[in-house]
Write a structure and sequence with these properties.
The chain is mainly β. The chain has two helices and eight strands; from the N terminus they run E-E-H-E-E-E-E-E-E-H. The protein is globular and about 45 Å long.
């Protein structure tokens, strides 16, 4: 797995990861991976992230069922950001955000204030069985 050595990991051994929806091109979320998470993602074909808040590997969908099937893994020109092309599974329409929305990028700046630009598709309290250091996708 020498390809992992080509990634420019930060001082904590992490790299930021963008999950982009294959069909729509929507940016669904940004998370972090360490070497083990990136290797597991490549091996499984499903997104596995490093949860900074829980300090452990986090298989996307382990609590919510909203799994990300990975179609392609890319890096930027500096190999310090990873881009995943994914199909978000587990709900139709797809939910990637712990707030129950399609994308974590649901706030839009309008007139000097942030407004919600996407609806809640499913109440987060019905998605997560138990809090384990915060819901999936919650900021660390």
């Amino acid at each position: 797995m020498a390809w992992l050595d080509d990634i420019h990991w930060d001082r904590d051994g992490l790299v930021p990861v963008i999950a982009q929806e294959r069909g729509s091109g929507d940016v669904l979320m940004v998370a972090w991976m360490n070497r083990e998470a990136l290797a597991a993602t490549a091996e499984r074909g499903q997104a596995v992230y490093w949860s900074r808040s829980r300090q452990r590997l986090w298989h996307k969908g382990e609590e919510s069922g909203h799994v990300q099937q990975v179609h392609e893994i890319r890096t930027d020109c500096d190999a310090d950001v990873v881009l995943l092309t994914v199909t978000q599974q587990g709900h139709d329409p797809s939910i990637a955000c712990h707030t129950g929305r399609h994308s974590c990028f649901f706030q839009r700046l309008e007139g000097g204030a942030w407004v919600s630009a996407e609806p809640v598709l499913k109440d987060p309290s019905t998605i997560y069985a138990k809090p384990a250091g915060g819901p999936e996708g919650a900021p660390p």
